[in-house]
Design brief:
Strand order of the largest sheet: 3-2-1-4-7-6-5
Shape: globular
Largest sheet: 7 strands, mixed
CATH architecture of the largest domain: 3-Layer(aba) Sandwich
Helix content: 40-55%
Distance between the termini: 32 Å
Number of helices: 18
Strand content: 5-15%
CATH superfamily of the largest domain: Class II aldolase/adducin N-terminal domain
CATH topology of the largest domain: L-fuculose-1-phosphate Aldolase
Number of domains: 3
Radius of gyration: 23 Å
Structural class: alpha+beta
Number of strands: 13
């Protein structure tokens, strides 16, 4: 897990010589977006979004103001120019001025705003990018920011850190509500020193007239949060907790058959095969053995967005049936007949012998969930020292996990490939028939282990 627990600050990765190879605003946007995507403590696996405002010429020769905003499905670490959706700027600004707009209608309107219908669907946060007046806008879910934000006095602490350099937006459900509130508060609170916007429990925006300025303002504001954690003694903290209760074990004690039994139980509850990855490194084992684990781990994720990958809380231990029963109660308490319940199997498991386990329908899903929770462990450990771990409420998290736009993706996803969640072992995988079998199994959704005789 990339961290800076050795006490070093985040550094700007901007290189003027490299940047000079990217000609034009959109190309500069690509370059700086990749810099953000290269730092896991800023964004993870498709998280965050960026934009740049510009002009395009229509078929009739008319020039239109647009905002190129990261498209759905693209990752900042590898994004290309084609990954930015050109939206008519005035259309988005007018949308932000409406009194109300359903999420489904907003999604439709975002598609209507495109000047190129072949472009990807715009980020749901496109309205926020549109209302911020600067040419370039960056948005991340920085670990240091979330650590400070998710404490009992997070808002007070952030005002102390940033002063009048940011507009502070209380936690609000993503989508139109958040864009509307952000637009209103920016109009009334921004001033000559404003370089960013804070979304409590969610993320951090910065902006500027150049890609370099917007990017380096992001690094600056995140560094300020890191420095604050250091001053408060909440930066270089052990995942085991200050009492040392999580002294790491040198090795895992669980047998392979126990891991297989756990995977089988989770797959049965999920209604289909799941891939399970097991991480028994010292950091993972230390966190799972904290004396306060049942308190801090069951409060919620670092940001509600993560619940889509990790669910709201991990499973502690291996009682899959109890976890599933708790998840069904969680859905019954917050859901209604219009929603389709997701499978109740855990995606993160914390066990004193297995350490951190992550599951998913595919190996990639399990990797993403595991990466997110590794960062979450560090965020929780630091926030606990800072003043207490206090993420958004269960209701807030449920509303994102079962957001209508996410439910729509679920309805459109169709049937999985026939071998999704299965693990195949292929001998002689380096060439010939073996290699062809590997390709065929991968195409059918399996996770494949390839062996080759020496």
């Amino acid at each position: 897990m990339p961290t800076r627990s050795n006490g070093t600050n985040m550094k700007s990765l901007w290189n003027d010589e490299d940047a000079s190879q990217y000609a034009g605003d959109l190309a500069q946007r690509v370059y700086s977006s990749r810099l953000l995507g290269a730092e896991p403590s800023l964004v993870l696996h498709g998280g965050g979004n960026t934009s740049v405002k510009g002009r395009v010429t229509s078929t009739f020769g008319d020039e239109e103001d647009v905002v190129f905003v990261k498209g759905s499905g693209w990752d900042l670490a590898t994004i290309e120019a084609a990954g930015f959706s050109p939206c008519r700027l005035n259309h988005l600004i007018r949308l932000s001025q409406l009194e109300s707009l359903s999420d489904r209608q907003m999604s439709i309107e975002l598609k209507k705003s495109l000047t190129d219908i072949s472009a990807p669907a715009p980020s749901v946060e496109a309205l926020l990018h549109a209302i911020l007046p600067a040419r370039f806008v960056d948005h991340t879910h920085a670990d240091a920011f979330l650590t400070v934000s998710n404490t009992p006095h997070g808002e007070k602490r952030l005002r102390e850190i940033y002063g009048d350099r940011v507009v502070l937006v209380p936690y609000t459900m993503p989508g139109f509500q958040l864009a509307k509130l952000g637009a209103d508060l920016f109009r009334t609170q921004s001033g000559p020193h404003t370089i960013g916007m804070v979304l409590m429990g969610h993320g951090l925006f910065t902006f500027g007239e150049t890609a370099k300025l917007s990017y380096e303002r992001m690094i600056e504001l995140v560094t300020c949060a890191e420095d604050y954690l250091k001053r408060c003694g909440a930066w270089s903290v052990p995942l085991a907790g200050p009492d040392g209760s999580g002294k790491p074990r040198t090795e895992a004690k669980a047998e392979r058959t126990e891991i297989a039994a756990l995977r089988r139980a989770m797959s049965d509850v999920a209604g289909g095969s799941l891939i399970l990855s097991v991480h028994t490194d010292a950091e993972a084992l230390s966190f799972t053995r904290r004396s306060d684990l049942h308190d801090i781990a069951l409060r919620g994720p670092a940001t509600p967005d993560h619940s889509i990958r990790t669910k709201r809380v991990p499973m502690l231990g291996r009682d899959v049936a109890s976890y599933a029963s708790d998840y069904r109660r969680y859905f019954a308490e917050h859901g209604d007949a219009s929603l389709t319940m997701l499978d109740p199997a855990p995606r993160i498991i914390l066990d004193c012998e297995l350490g951190l386990c992550a599951s998913g329908r595919t190996a990639d899903d399990a990797i993403v969930a595991g990466d997110i929770y590794r960062h979450t462990m560090e965020i929780i450990a630091r926030a606990t020292v800072l003043g207490g771990w206090q993420p958004p409420t269960a209701r807030d998290i449920f509303n994102v996990e079962y957001w209508d736009l996410e439910q729509a993706k679920l309805r459109k996803s169709g049937s999985p490939a026939p071998f999704t969640g299965e693990i195949a072992v292929v001998t002689g995988a380096a060439s010939g028939i073996g290699r062809a079998c590997v390709t065929s199994l991968l195409d059918r959704g399996a996770a494949v282990v390839g062996l080759n005789a020496m």
